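Hi again,

Forgot to attach this to my earlier email, sorry! This is the prediction with adenosine-5'-diphosphate bound. I've pasted everything inline since the attachment limit keeps bouncing my files.
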Amino acid sequence: MATILAVGIATLDVINEVASYPREDAEVRALSHSVRRGGNATNTLVVLSQLGHNCEWAGVWADEPDARILRADLDRYAIQTRYCRRVGQGKIPTSYITCSRATASRTIVHYRDLPEFDFGSFRGIPLDTFDWVHFEGRNVGETLRMMEHLRYRCPGVPVSLEVEKAREGIEALFPYANLLLFAQAFADYCGYSPEAMLQAVSENAPHADIVCTLSERGAVGLNRNGELLFSAAYPPAQLVDTLGAGDTFNAAMIDAALRGKSLSTSLERACRLAGAKCGQVGFHGLDRSRMSDGDD
Ligand code: ADP
Ligand code: FRU
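Structure tokens for the complex follow:
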């Protein structure tokens, strides 16, 4: 069991499931409706907790009524929040999500009225108590200061960075990570194939394992020896809910790295667990049995 810190967001996800994605200006009835905790960093922690790790979240917390839903879910998975910054004003970041039953796509409209977690709050965390630190690639200037500080203070603590979207200056973060977790949208933005993007990024991060998810096509990776690796996806019997598939993939990659797995095995296990997630609503029950390769 490892002790893991993740820096990033928790959200309120307001989810409507519809038969198929509506055209603009249409009025349709939802097939189901739910309100849940979401957010990349905390989604990843909820999965890591079920994989057997001690998990700590560092983010910004607003004391407002919707925070109760987040608190209940974080408590359910024993995610600690002592290093979060609490603010009296503002709104928990909220995602209004339309899930299409026809395609299992999830379309997200996100509203945010909360400061970002900053270096001032990060510097007080006793970083040497962690076996792994994971960052969301957002709020680039402050995240860079956090990653530099961590590398200086605790050079031996492995670091992962999730890069979902292109943000100005984000490439400055790459050299500070041991594991870089990209989504295909980033390669698309750069105008590269995922494989070419991995090669280009490796010039800036020669000591990192670098991976890129490809949705229903699985994932590709480039290890520190320059070997290009691939895992196909593991489609579930029925595609139910892809929301947070990437966050689940990231949790399985971190877990595999902590267990000393090769990048090739890690990719396969992460695709297995992310595939299992796509076959169910939410994250509950995504434990080791769901990515078993008989080699723990
Ligand atoms: P997100 O949109 O949440 O960032 P991705 O679409 O990049 O996530 O997918 C992350 C991983 O989830 C993929 O690498 C794959 O392993 C798995 N995955 C996503 N969609 C499917 C699917 N339709 N069938 C099987 N696995 C999937
Ligand atoms: C899924 C997710 C949702 C959240 C959104 C934030 O990956 O974390 O739970 O609303 O992305 O961007």
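Residues 263-278 form the longest helix (16 residues). Residues 11, 13, 38-40, 43, 95, 108, 110, 243-244, 246-247 surround beta-D-fructofuranose (ligand 2) (CB under 6 Å).

That should be everything now.

G.
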